Amino acid sequence: MKKLRKASSIVLCLTLSAALLAACGSNEDGGSATSTVEGVKKEGFPIVDKPLTLKVMSQDAGVADWNTMPVLQEMEKLSGIKLEYQLSPIDSFETKKNLVFASGDLPDMFYAADLKPAEQVTYGTQGILIPLEKYIDEGYAPNIKKILDENPDVRKSFTTPDGHMYALPFIDTAAVWYRGPMWYNGEFLKALNVEEPKTTEELYTYLKRVKEEDPNGNGQQDEIPLTSVKLDDLRMYFFGFWGMYNEGIYADKDGKVHYPYQEEGYKGYLTFMNRLWKEDLLDHETFSQTGDQKKAKGESNKLALFNDYHPYFTLGGEPSTKHPLMTPVKSEIADSPVYGKHPGISARGTFAITSSNPSPEATMRWIDYMYSYDGATLFNQGPEGLLWKFKDKENLVKEWLPVPGGGDREEYRGKITPNYGILTPGINDPDIAKGLRTEFDEWLDQQNQEKLVPIGKSPFPNVYLTNEEQSEATALLSDLDTYVKQMEAKFVTGQEPLENWDKYIAQIKKMGSDRIVELYQGAYDRWNTGQ
Predict the structure, then answer these.
(1) Which residues are the signal sequence here (predicted)?
(2) In a domain, 32, yes or no
(3) What radius of gyration do the chain's Cα atoms show?
(4) Which of 105, 148, 228, 370 has CB atoms 3.0–4.6 Å from 15's, for a disulfide?
């Protein structure tokens, strides 16, 4: 649960949009609903003159009833808009969302909806999702418009090939990670008197010493040098050691698109991981264990190197500066290491308005509040006086208040706001956390700036394929992804000898890997030229 909680804490705003039910009509041809804008204010609260109710579909972390959450109650008072919730647990949301699209029984808006580029293009061109840019540019979303004007790449990255924006992103221009990085157990480094490894060979040597020299000091050879869950948690970070920015499609510094699983760097990665496996330096339960089982090993002080959002999530205890962020290491590949940095926006749409919505104008006003300081504060931290108060309002400096009834602040936060455990629309404004940051937060920033930012680059912009291209790419990648993951496990564990690399490359090229590069190179070039 802690991973879930922390994942939500970097996401600062939840947007549940609303729209005007009164004064609406539909096109005679069955197209999207139209709206009179009478009664919808372009500024100030309430947004509408008459109370109204709208349906919103979202994911639910299952911590509390949204109908009783103080944040949503406060937003209803401010806006004059009441929401009816169509919620689905996080792990079944994709299935529910697909059923809703297929049935045509639509909510008025999707929120925290994880709308993939293909879904935006498909349902946008079909008229199920409506274009948003008109309402943004007509003054119903001044905060969003300001962000788009100041960051033209954000608008460009959420504009589909037909020229429309069908979804909104979460925006965090200061972000460095978009998944948990790798961490060293600092106590093991200290026990072995080792500086952080700088090359793959130094990393191998360190992991071997962990296995042989009892750094946890219990007199047993029970240390696990490196662990993982199916390699999914470490793959992207380790790919950077061999010059690859992403475990999916990525573009290098020259704008050339790559499919990593046919790169020479990938062969280097497989060779290294197989070496670790053969010498029992990579956990032999990697392909069978769960995240909870991995965590139990951390809490037993057996792990030397592992992935998580923060080290104490795996090792237990309180936030601490003694377990360092892993410095990416250099391999035999030229210009390594590299790091796939957070692109500053979510790669998928977090919010959309459907054709059932009777007033996109009112809805855009609702969502726009989440892209402001006040809206981001409300949905991330709750109403003033509950978990926090202003220490210096003029300079926007806050301080925490005691958690009502005691207990964990983050767990309590999950009871008052839906902005918990799901990627929501809005912004990460540094001012929101002014006065609330801890020594650990400052240390994380320093670690990022020293180790990741200098070698970091966003792997790939949020580009769109045409419908035809997307259909082709989806079909190709479905088979390719299954095959390369199966072969990765076989190469790493030695079931498939690396002498068969050329045979493997021939097979994935036969399955369309070069065509994938061609499709995404075209989409990247269109994005890059603004076409």
Answers:
(1) 1-22
(2) no
(3) 24
(4) 370
